[in-house]
Amino acid sequence: MKHRTTLLTSLTAALLGTALAGGTTGMAGMQEGFLDVNGARIHYVSQGSGTPMLLLHGYPLSGELFARNRAALAAAGYRVITVDHRGYGKSTAPASDPGSLQTYANDALTVLDRLGVQKAIIGGMSMGGPIVFEMYRTAPQRFMGMILIDTIANPASVVEQNLWKGMAQKAQMFGPQSLAPELLKDMLTGETRAHRMGDVKVLTDIVKQASVAADVAGANVLATRPDSIPTLKTITVPTLIIEGLEDTVYPPEFSMKMQQNIAGSKLVIIPGAAHAAIFEKAAAANRAIIDWARTVR
């Protein structure tokens, strides 16, 4: 009877902890829920236990970009946390603050607070990279390590600024779904687009979930991002850089430049992958992350 009482007490405590976090726990150890953060309602997924690892998606995607990474990384001993930035995926945002670089960074840090995570390996893909840099400038003590995935530290050139402004205008005129054809040709290689239509559909469906306001806000973040090259020289935590060999948005040269400016960083270039290498070649990306993360203390 005493054993049964102890078991029930433990179960009640576990369920209460989940309820306080606003989530539900699935059979595979995956917790999913919503948190009211800085005026927005942020959707998150947490899977596994052990060293926390927060992964931030790019534009105009959601945390489901990492659906092929969570289980493998969790099985290797990590608590993998993904969020949908405000206005993307299942998250919502107030009209007064649809999103900015500082807001995305503050949202992510607050999610860590609300989930009881003091320090984590923090990674970002594409737009997630500038967000990670902003988080590091704001709270470097929260980082155990850093992962930069198909991203860039340079500010946007005039050409790139106009590209993102065009994306915002297109979303306003024709809706979020109109961005998918334009973006998918860069996210996935031609080989994948021709022969793995399921991958195309997954990313297309994710792009369609974003709100128009989020598409505009994210495009503005990318167009006006600050120069983070000086920040690279201040990074003292272990850093992994992952790059798709066929990335045409931010080609390997930019990752090589980051690697040269971050002391002790490691660069892994994945063949047969474009801008969404973390999704397109998930197995290779998972191996790279696990091999590197085992060296992080």
Layout of SSEs?
Blueprint: H1 2-20, E1 23-25, E2 30-37, E3 40-47, E4 51-56, H2 70-75, E5 78-83, H3 101-114, E6 120-125, H4 128-138, E7 143-149, H5 158-174, H6 179-187, H7 190-195, H8 197-209, H9 212-224, H10 229-232, E8 239-244, H11 252-261, E9 266-270, H12 277-280, H13 282-293
Parallel strand pairs: 4-5, 4-6, 6-7, 7-8, 8-9
Antiparallel strand pairs: 1-2, 2-3, 3-5
Helix pairs in contact: 3-4, 5-9, 6-8
Q: Could you describe the 3D structure shown?
A:
The protein is of the alpha/beta class. The longest helix is centred in the N-terminal third of the chain and has 19 residues. Helices cover 46% and strands 19% of the residues. It has a nine-stranded mixed sheet with strand order 1-2-3-5-4-6-7-8-9, sandwiched between helices. The protein has a domain of 191 residues: Rossmann fold. The radius of gyration is 19 Å and the shape is globular.
